[in-house]
Amino acid sequence: MKKNGIVFCFLFLSLIGCKEQKKEQKVEQKAETSVEGKVSVVQNDSLDNLIGKYEYKNTDTPDESLLLIFKKVDIKTIPNFEGYSWQEKNEKGENIDVTLSGIFYGNTDLFGEAREGYKPGFFVGTIQSEPLENNVVKVNINIASSDILEKPIYPPIQSTQEALKSGNKKWEVTELEINRELIFEIKSSNKLVLKSDLGSDDKIFKKIK
Known about the structure:
By secondary structure, this protein is an alpha+beta fold. The protein contains three helices and ten strands. Strands 2-3-5-6-7-8-9-10 form an eight-stranded antiparallel β-barrel. A hairpin with a 7-residue loop joins strand 9 (191-195) and strand 10 (203-207). The chain starts with a helix and ends with a strand. Residues 6-13 and 18-43 have low confidence and may be disordered.
């Protein structure tokens, strides 16, 4: 009887120990979630499918065409990242959080009121994206007035500094800082429509690569 009692006590204590261990694991999982802070992880195949180059052709003034390049990047490469990401495996088979980032080549006519007697300024800047409902993706862009230049900028140039080294000059027409949210409707993986909020026509971006 004593032996059976000892076995029963051992099993009882083991059961309690397992429950406590599970509780600790749940607490650790909650802690890990809170450590992620403002990073929202989402599974979003539609964003993954958008990777590539999209161009809006201005047939009247080709120099004022627009180019949007989407690419995936590890969120660890973005300082103070806050936004949407999803998990993928890297070349080593490790799970990493990636997001849809990229580069936008644009001009001030996209953001300003009608100009009179002068040419627009041009810029290149990095972007962050965020999926919205109904096949819509929001693109955030932030350009300082000192990053707006006189001449159009094209790949492979990817920054203001590179453009200045290539002979471009700062635009001195006006002080204009660009901090905007661009709303793109996803028609397909090959076609995006930039919805205008300034009363102008929507712009169709077609995938070129």
